[in-house]
Structures are given as C-alpha cells and as structure tokens.
Write a structure and sequence with these properties.
two-stranded parallel sheet; globular; binds adenosine monophosphate; binds tryptophan; mainly alpha
C-alpha cells in the first residue's frame, strides 16, 4: 500500500475548486492506500489570523473532510500543530533549502507582491509543506496543479538531503494532479482560479453555500456573447470553466456535454448546472451538519494526532541520527 499525504489550510469558504481539485480525490484514494489527511493550521498563520476564527475554521475543515467522504476508520485525520514533528523537520529542511529557490516560488511572489516586507513564514511556507510530506515517508501527494512547484521543491529537498545525509533519510514523493476539475476558475473572472479569499463571494461556490446563493453565483457567472456551448479555454474561458465543473461533478465528458447542449443557450445550460451543483453538495452539507457540533469530531482529531505522531517520531529519530543531532 502506498502512503498518501495531503493537507488543506483551515480557512473559511472551502469551495468546489477545493472539493474537485482535492477533497474528492482524497476520499477516492483511501480505499487502496494508507492515507493521512492534515489540517495545516501552522501554514494558516503565515498571514495574520484572528485566533478565534482560526480555531473555528480548524473544526469546520475537519468536519468537511469527514463530510466529503474521508473515513476516520480508514484514514488518519489530524491537525498539523498537534504533531510537533512538523515544526522540527521544517527547521531541519530550512537549513537545506536555498533562498534562491524559495524566491522563485510563484505563490510567494504573488502573495508578497504588494508588500514592502513579507513575513518570513510566507517565504519558508513551502519548506514546512515539504516537512509535512517527508515526515510520513509519503509516496503520493494528491493536490491541485497550483501546488506543482511546491511538490517539485519537496522532491528536490528530499533528493538533496538523501545525497548528503544518506539515501534512507527520505522517501522521494510524487504529486498526483487531478485532470478534470484540477483547476476550477473564478466565476466572475475565469482567467483566475477560484479562490477562498476573493472579495466577490459570487466568484466562488462554497461547499456550505445555500441553494439560493449557488443559483445566483452560477446564473451570474461570466460567459461570452456568442452563446455557443463549446470548450475553448483560450477564446471562451467562462463557458469552458462551467463545462469543466459540470463534467467533474457528473462524470460526463465535456464532449458529450457539448453534444447534449448543442443548440441550447447559456441560460438553459446554467439552470441545469445549478441543479447538478446543488444535488452534489446537498449530501456533503447534511453530513457536515451532523458531525460539526458532535463530540465525535474532536475525538477523531485526537486519535488521528496520536497515530500521526507515532509515525512522525520514527522519522524524526532517523533524520536526527543521519544529521548527527542530539545525544546518542
Ligand atoms: P488552499 O485553498 O490553497 O488551501 O487549497 C487546498 C487544496 O485545494 C489544494 O490541494 C489546492 O491545490 C486545491 N485548490 C485550491 N483552489 C483550487 C481551484 N480553484 N481549483 C482546483 N483546486 C484548487
Ligand atoms: N500548500 C497547500 C495549499 O495551499 C497546503 C498544504 C500544506 C499541503 N502542506 C501540505 C498540501 C502538504 C499537500 C501536502 O493548498
């Protein structure tokens, strides 16, 4: 069995991009793999967070993990800061990373663009992500394709450390990028990806949105003026994005959708898409409401942290030995 690891930041507005690009495949992977799913709260504090909101978000995201089909009897679900090995390995890896390679990370460049001085944590964020992955001898990391550069950095760091400190130090992981729905674009500007933080709430569909909000978001979504339902990302990014979303939720290919809707207008297509999205998120919302306020949730996270810690401690021991750290 392969070890799978992935993480999501505890922020509000988990949207259908997160679901189609990440959560849905997390659930699918747990049948044939040993999966570890983390709520990466230490990544969340790379930008200032209100402590109360952060704490709420941790439980919200944990509940969404379970609601999206992650089964705590099959997979380990836990909160990053409950396992000290992440910070420990994060530092050790920081010492093997270069400022040059971190400066090239597009996510850092974007997030620090308008700031005169960026928090150091924002800069070293990818190294902590590498630590998350390498701590568990992970072989597969399911993520959206926006994380590709971070996965490549993780691989580079693993290979570099193994070359210097011993080939047994780390397992070199691979990213697994979902094709359909790997990149869900914003509904109001389909040239940018759907984001948790965009100001316009109609630019995204959050998993916990009401049917009315979903309807409004889809009906308002930017399309173009020629009215032809055709997949063409270059020239028709709006309708192409909606076709991808439809396809990802239903499993129908984009080609078959183009055929089904040949001759229909955007309005009819959008109405059907509203139904598709609403009926897909309904079971998730029902399950979320069941688990969010239950004692069960905290119990799952506590047990998850214990299991994760047992694996992490072994890796830290091996890494410290290879680096010559501590008393032996
Ligand atoms: P984040 O929102 O950055 O915490 O992302 C959590 C997970 O969702 C990561 O695996 C991302 O790659 C994925 N993700 C985020 N936004 C999108 C999007 N618009 N489309 C597809 N996947 C996404
Ligand atoms: N950086 C990821 C994101 O923004 C979240 C993340 C942190 C992650 N650590 C991880 C994803 C480890 C996969 C594996 O989406």
């Amino acid at each position: 069995m392969n070890r799978v690891f992935s993480g999501i930041q505890p922020t509000g507005n988990i949207h259908i991009g997160n679901y189609l690009g990440a959560l849905k495949q997390f659930a699918e992977l747990q049948n044939d793999n040993e999966c570890i799913y983390c709520i990466v709260d230490m990544h969340a504090i790379t930008v200032p967070k209100d402590p109360k909101e952060l704490n709420e978000s941790i439980l919200n995201v944990a509940a969404l993990y379970i609601a999206c089909g992650i089964d705590p009897d099959k997979s380990i679900v836990f909160v990053q800061s409950d396992v000290p090995g992440h910070a420990e390995l994060g530092w050790i890896l920081t010492c093997s990373s270069y400022t040059g390679e971190l400066s090239r990370m597009t996510q850092f460049k974007q997030k620090s663009k308008e700031k005169e001085s960026a928090p150091t944590g924002l800069f070293t964020y990818p190294v902590l992500m590498a630590a998350d992955i390498l701590l568990y001898d992970t072989s597969i990391v399911p993520v959206g394709d926006d994380q590709k550069q971070h996965i490549e950095l993780t691989r580079d760091l693993a290979v570099r450390v193994n070359g210097k400190y011993g080939e047994n130090t780390f397992v070199v992981p691979e990213g697994r990028y979902m094709k359909s729905g790997a990149r869900v674009m914003s509904l109001d500007d389909p040239t940018n990806k759907m984001s948790k933080s965009a100001e316009n709430e109609y630019s995204r569909i959050s998993l916990l949105d009401s049917p009315a909000k979903i309807k409004k978001s889809v009906m308002r979504a930017t399309t173009d003026s020629d009215g032809i339902i055709k997949f063409d990302v270059e020239n028709k990014p709006g309708i192409s994005n909606l076709l991808s979303i439809y396809s990802a939720f239903t499993g129908k290919t984009v080609e078959s959708l183009e055929k089904d809707y040949a001759g229909s207008g955007y309005g009819d297509f959008k109405k059907d898409l509203v139904e598709v999205v609403n009926s897909s998120v309904k079971p998730i919302q029902d399950k979320y409401n069941d688990i969010r306020e239950s004692d069960e949730l905290k119990k799952i996270l506590k047990e998850g942290a214990e299991k994760a810690n047992a694996i992490a401690e072994k890796t830290i021991k091996r890494v410290k030995e290879n680096f010559g750290l501590g008393i032996r």
